[in-house]
Amino acid sequence: MSTAYEAFQVFEQEATAAIEAARNVADLEQVRILFLGKSKGRLKDLQSELGKATPAERPAIGQAFNDMKLRVTQLFDARVEVLSRPESQPRDFDVTLPGNLPRLGREHPITQTIEEFKEIIGRFGFTVDDGPELEDEYHNFDALNIPKDHPARDPLDNFYLAAAKTANGQPILLRSQTSTVQIRVMERTKPPVRIVSVGRVYRPDEIDRTHHQMFHQMEGLMVGEGVTMATLKSVLKMFAAAYLGEDVEIRFRPSFFPFTEPSVEVDVRWRDGWLELGGAGMVDPQVLENVGYDPETITGFAFGLGIARFCMLRHGIDDIRLFYENDLRFLKQF
Ligand code: DAH
Question: Which residues hold Mg(2+) (predicted)?
Fold first, then answer.
């Protein structure tokens, strides 16, 4: 009979020592499994000692077992409570030191500009639409009234895909302008239309401070009844003022594009001279006809602006290549 009491005592001593030695909640859980675990814990083994007692001994042994069990579980619960407190977690660092800030990425300056453009132009009621970067000849040239022999179609001035054609046999190219989206939107929408489309365009130009072979444009298109050149000038002036500042000076210069008549180039005063921001004009009646609109009742304007130009102006950046080289020393500044 003494063996049962001894066994209880040994158990209590060892369990107590183990509970006190636990340094964290995970340690303590191991102790619990070992000593108090319902299926394999040592307490479970001790219970069998009770079975060996004679009926006369049993009440006292049972009482002793229960008392011991209660002491151990109370000790255990108290230790859980202590070790669960934040201040009891092991501390091998100085909590008063300033933390390490996680290194956050940020949006590319071109992306930032695009987001701001969409926000500004949205105030004038333009919604954002989209078109593919891989285009067929029809949308990049034909529908935009660009003649078959126009130099803009020159294979040396475009990225044609050598090995692919559309199902109806048309050459495919990386679009050279976002004006393609004008056509795609008008083909699927009835007037009035008021959209912008922002995206990449590709031209095999010589790369220098102001030219790259891939760059971003924002195309705008407003078509409906009574849309005039005056509307175009107002929208572009307000847009430029919103992005570059109220004192910005904008100039419209007569120009030529096959898909607009009349056409203008839009310049902004910059340092001692003028910097071209893009092209614009009244959508050519032929283009309206190409998409099934009636040029007798509908007019519209369109514009195409270089995104990087604006960003360069705003931040005083003098080399477009910086945007595309992914040099973190540059990108981190935005
Ligand atoms: N697509 C022309 C370019 O890439 C820019 C442009 C000019 C777009 C006149 C237009 C426009 O929508 O009306 O140079």
Answer: 261
